[in-house]
């Protein structure tokens, strides 16, 4: 089963007057994992799709949705998957790829069939991002030891973290999709600080490994007009090109970032100093 919803893009000036309920309705994706189903949110920010798949006791197929007007989901798209649960399997046009927790799979444009399964009674949680594609690139698995790892932050500022680039142009050929996984070290809570924007790319953030009863506060909005959304484990948030995307939790946590837009230049960003935010 594939469930889906549609989100329009918001003008930054309009978003300044949104209250809590409106912010959550427009940007938060609260439920990504439902037993034996695919959950998809189609966004007008670069026509990005965010989703989740939770195969429990049967195979789950990725099906096309009405907004695509295509016979298959990937006829004009590319797909990135990061497993944030137990071991699972993804079958791409008959070829099986096993993914452990925090491993990724890139699936290129033109693939006809993508099927998700659990392995040996484990419970995988497959987090999906998809963007329009103009060319077909080969399907490729990215294991933990193939990731490009960067140490970031400082315990002095409570933001020491490990950034794992998974689906990026230095590892995998893609049209525009990029994805990675960041892990906050124990005792550290701030991510993506100093904050930044990048007008040529939008992003989606997915927070996981958040302890039960704890929360992550995701900061968004224009640098001079910031807003916030409190989030729980296994929730995602859309981040427009005009918005910062930073967060702070009541415990350490991990998150998957995904982006699409005009370029694949990871360092293309406009940094906002912490004391310049409003």
Written description of the protein model:
- There is one protein chain.
- The chain has 278 residues and is mainly β.
- The protein has a single domain (2-276), classed as Jelly Rolls.
- The chain is built from two helices and 24 strands.
- A seven-stranded mixed beta sheet has the order 1-3-4-11-6-9-12, with no helix packed on it.
- Strand 7 (88-92) and strand 8 form a beta hairpin.
- The longest helix is centred in the N-terminal third of the chain and has 8 residues, at 20-27.
- The protein is globular.
- The termini are far apart.
Mean pLDDT: 96
How many DSSP H or I helices?
A: 2
Low-confidence stretches: none
Physical arrangement of strands within the biggest beta sheet? 1-3-4-11-6-9-12
The CATH architecture can be named as Sandwich
Our measurement of the CA-to-CA distance between the termini, rounded to an integer number of angstroms, reads 43 Å
CATH superfamily: Jelly Rolls
**Overall tally of domains:** 1
| Beta-strand content estimate | 35-45%
Q: According to CATH, what is the topology?
A: Jelly Rolls
Biggest beta sheet summary:
7 strands, mixed
- The CATH top-level class label: Mainly Beta
> Which range best describes the helical content: under 10%, 10-25%, 25-40%, 40-55%, 55-70% or over 70%?
under 10%
Number of strands: 24
Order of helices and strands: EHHEEEEEEEEEEEEEEEEEEEEEEE
Could you tell me the radius of gyration in angstroms?
A: 18 Å
- Principal-axes geometry comes out as globular
């Amino acid at each position: 089963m594939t469930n889906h919803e549609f989100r329009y893009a918001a003008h930054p000036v309009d978003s300044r007057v949104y209250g809590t309920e409106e912010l959550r309705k427009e940007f938060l994706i609260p439920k990504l994992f439902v037993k034996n189903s695919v959950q998809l949110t189609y966004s007008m920010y670069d026509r990005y799709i965010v989703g989740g798949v939770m195969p429990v006791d049967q195979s789950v197929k990725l099906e096309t949705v009405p907004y695509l007007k295509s016979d298959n989901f990937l006829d004009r798209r590319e797909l990135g998957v990061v497993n944030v649960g137990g071991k699972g399997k993804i079958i791409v046009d008959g070829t099986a790829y096993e993914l452990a927790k925090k491993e990724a799979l890139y699936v290129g444009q033109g693939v006809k069939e993508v099927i998700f399964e659990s392995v040996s009674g484990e419970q995988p949680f497959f987090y999906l991002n998809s963007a329009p594609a103009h060319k077909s690139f080969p399907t490729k698995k990215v294991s933990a030891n193939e990731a490009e790892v960067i140490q970031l932050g400082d315990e002095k500022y409570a933001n020491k973290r490990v950034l794992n680039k998974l689906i990026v142009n230095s590892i995998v050929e893609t049209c525009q999709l990029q994805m990675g996984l960041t892990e906050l070290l124990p005792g550290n809570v701030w991510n993506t600080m100093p904050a930044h924007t990048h007008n040529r790319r939008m992003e989606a953030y997915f927070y996981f490994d958040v302890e039960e009863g704890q929360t992550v506060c995701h900061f968004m909005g224009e640098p001079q007009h910031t807003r916030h959304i409190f989030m729980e484990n296994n929730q995602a948030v859309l981040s427009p090109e005009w918005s910062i995307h930073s967060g702070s939790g009541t415990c350490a946590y991990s998150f998957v970032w995904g982006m699409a837009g005009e370029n694949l230049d990871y360092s293309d960003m406009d940094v906002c100093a912490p004391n310049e935010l409003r």
